[in-house]
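Title: Comparing notes on inverse folding

I've been comparing how different people in this forum approach sequence design from structure. To keep things fair, I'm posting one structure and asking everyone to reply with a full sequence. Here's the target:
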């Protein structure tokens, strides 16, 4: 399949500026593809048609869901690095924080939605917006993407995972999901079980609501690191949260795309 990538000229014109990169991941490839697969299941006909026109041969959200991680080694995209997260320290609320001048996940999501809703946006701009939005809605539902600035969202909180070095951010990104050995399509089938009524309720959340959910969870999981020796018990106690977050991310992504492209 053909993969559409915007030229750096178009990106610079659209967003402007360059920023220093940071290494940030969320959900890993499998998790992001699960979010996108769930979203595919909840797209309406108008959104599906619009995505086909925008993305062409790549009009399948799991294909584009990892694009923002795929391009991290390319310096011309380093200005996107701060878009993957927003930091709230313990006890802080959204009203307390000073937003980064480099942008953050909430601003990036809002910007992408505006591009999709604007009938004057070009196909290139909309294609980039879909890629970014598909990824960032997933990121926003990973609890440690709303973690503490001091430890880089849990990246500095060292733990062992079945005796091997890891950190609490990575545990939530990919270690727990990887432990199940499921493909993204298999996992999507397991988690995409919400009723029509539940879907409506899930999609009623604002992006600030989504952020607050993640922050509340992350505050809890910071406290539950304990001695840092994580394994089977940690999976048993917390895997249902992983399933819930990726399910909600997918359903909400579909709701956003249905509204913006409908």
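Reply #1:
Here's my take.
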């Amino acid at each position: 399949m053909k993969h559409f990538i915007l030229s750096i000229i178009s990106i610079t014109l659209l967003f402007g500026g360059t920023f220093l990169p940071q290494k940030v991941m969320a959900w890993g490839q499998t998790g992001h593809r699960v979010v996108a697969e769930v979203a595919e299941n909840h797209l309406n006909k108008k959104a599906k048609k619009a995505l086909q026109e925008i993305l062409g041969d790549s009009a399948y959200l799991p294909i584009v869901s990892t694009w923002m991680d795929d391009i991290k080694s390319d310096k011309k995209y380093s200005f996107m690095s701060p878009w993957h997260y927003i930091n709230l320290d313990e006890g802080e609320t959204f009203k307390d924080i000073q937003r980064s001048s480099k942008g953050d996940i909430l601003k990036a999501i809002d910007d992408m939605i505006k591009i999709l809703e604007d009938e004057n946006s070009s196909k290139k701009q909309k294609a980039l917006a879909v890629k970014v939005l598909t990824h960032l809605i997933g990121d926003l539902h990973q609890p440690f993407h709303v973690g503490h600035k001091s430890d880089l969202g849990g990246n500095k909180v060292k733990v062992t995972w079945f005796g091997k070095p890891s950190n609490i951010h990575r545990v939530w990104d990919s270690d727990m999901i990887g432990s199940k050995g499921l493909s993204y399509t298999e996992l999507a089938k397991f988690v995409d079980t919400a009723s029509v009524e539940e879907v409506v309720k899930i999609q009623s959340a604002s992006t600030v609501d989504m952020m607050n959910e993640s922050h509340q969870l992350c505050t809890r999981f910071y406290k539950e690191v304990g001695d840092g020796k994580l394994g089977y018990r940690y999976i048993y106690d917390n895997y249902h949260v992983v399933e819930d977050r990726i399910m909600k991310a997918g359903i909400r992504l579909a709701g956003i795309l249905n509204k913006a492209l409908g």
